[in-house]
Amino acid sequence: MDSELPWVTFALIGVMLAFAAGWIGSRLDIRQWKREQSDSPKAYYKGLNLLLNEQQDKAIDAFIEAMQQDPGTAELHFALGNLFRRRGEYERAVRVHEYLLARSDLPEADRHRARHGLAQDFMKAGLFDRAEAAFRELDGTAFATDARLELLNLYERTRDWRAAIDSARKLEAAGAGSFATRIAHHWCEIAEEADARQRPDEADAALAEARAVAPQAPRPLILAGQRLAAAGRHAEALALWNELFALQPGAVSLVAAEYAASALAAGDPAAARERLAALQARQPSSDTLAALLGLEPDAAARSTRLQQALKQQPTLSTAAALLKENAATADPGDKTQAEQLAQVVGARAKPQQRYRCAACGFEAQHYFWQCPGCQTWDSYPPVRLDDQ
Ligand SMILES: [Zn+2]
């Protein structure tokens, strides 16, 4: 028995040494892990701090450093992907999101998030086909409503109006609110394109759809009236625009000049003058005023109306209109000076006669139903800056 003792002792010592080595090894691992854990947030906070100080280049470097220390963290990849996209570095943003999608250990929720990020990268980069496919894959996920909204924007940007209508209807069905006015705009766009292709029947049908989906919307009424007037059906155009006076009086100024022209063509200026004068008393605008002046054959009556308007609304536009009227009726000796004065004030009034987007501030001489700056629908109040 005694001869067996040293062997047992050696074995026990061996086991203890192995245990100690394992313990020391594991301690070292834990220490390293702890160091990594403390380094990674440090780099992350550094990146965040730089980001808050709008030093995006340095922030990206800090995030890349943090990512190298802890490649398993998806959050950093997401932060980096969003940063790249915001800076317009779409290729790099795509690479980050594709890397995330290629990872087999990514939880499903993060996978959807990465696909959403990727779709946004494609959209921003103008790769609409790939964006469409990526957004479509988000159906049935937590990003479904957002993806449908993005798809709606995408179809609008590519002027695929029928697909836009389909998307808007799906959003309505999913309880994302009413898209009636927007759908009416899509039908109006279809009508305008059909008219440009000399397809009046298609335009009629599209406008009927627009009016059915949003009976209160001003654009279908304005457009339908313009088409009737262009076809010489002035009495019908006036009847349609009279609905606008009742439903959307604020939008009448957009079509006031054409309303007056149709009234003259239909031989019924008195009724139109009465309606426009009543509107002008409630909601004065330079367009309604100009339309009224067009219906006033008598120079003295025009001048009186302008003087009243200047008292009611002392704007550069009204002053310019009054000076122009005065120049037209001035004595030959005063005419040149009167015309010069009208020209100077008219030029000063011009910038004030723009429309301005309430969403982004984009200004234009022309009225837009969808802002070319920010793509928002109905963001232009239908009054010129001078009339606000
Ligand atoms: Zn805008």
Question: Explain this structure to me?
Answer:
Helix 8 runs antiparallel to helix 9. The chain is mainly alpha-helical and 388 residues long. It starts with a helix and ends in a 24-residue tail after the last strand. Strands 1-2 form a two-stranded antiparallel ribbon. Among the domains are: 134 residues, Serine Threonine Protein Phosphatase 5, Tetratricopeptide repeat; 84 residues, no CATH class; 34 residues, no CATH class. The N terminus is likely disordered. The longest helix is centred in the N-terminal third of the chain and has 48 residues. The relative contact order is 0.04. The protein is built from 18 helices and two strands. Bound molecules: zinc ion. The site of zinc ion has 9 residues, from loops.
Summed up, the helix count is: 18
- Tell me the number of strands: 2
Major β-sheet profile: 2 strands, antiparallel
Quickly name the level 1 CATH class of one domain: Mainly Alpha
Shape: elongated
What is the straight-line distance between the termini? 110 Å
Strand content: under 5%
Question: Helical amount among residues, as a percent range?
Answer: over 70%
Strand order of the largest sheet: 1-2
What would CATH call the homologous superfamily of one domain? Tetratricopeptide repeat domain
Which CATH architecture of one domain? Alpha Horseshoe
Subcellular location: Cell inner membrane
Family: Belongs to the LapB family.
Pfam families: TPR_16 (PF13432), Zn_ribbon_LapB (PF18073)
Organism: Rivibacter subsaxonicus
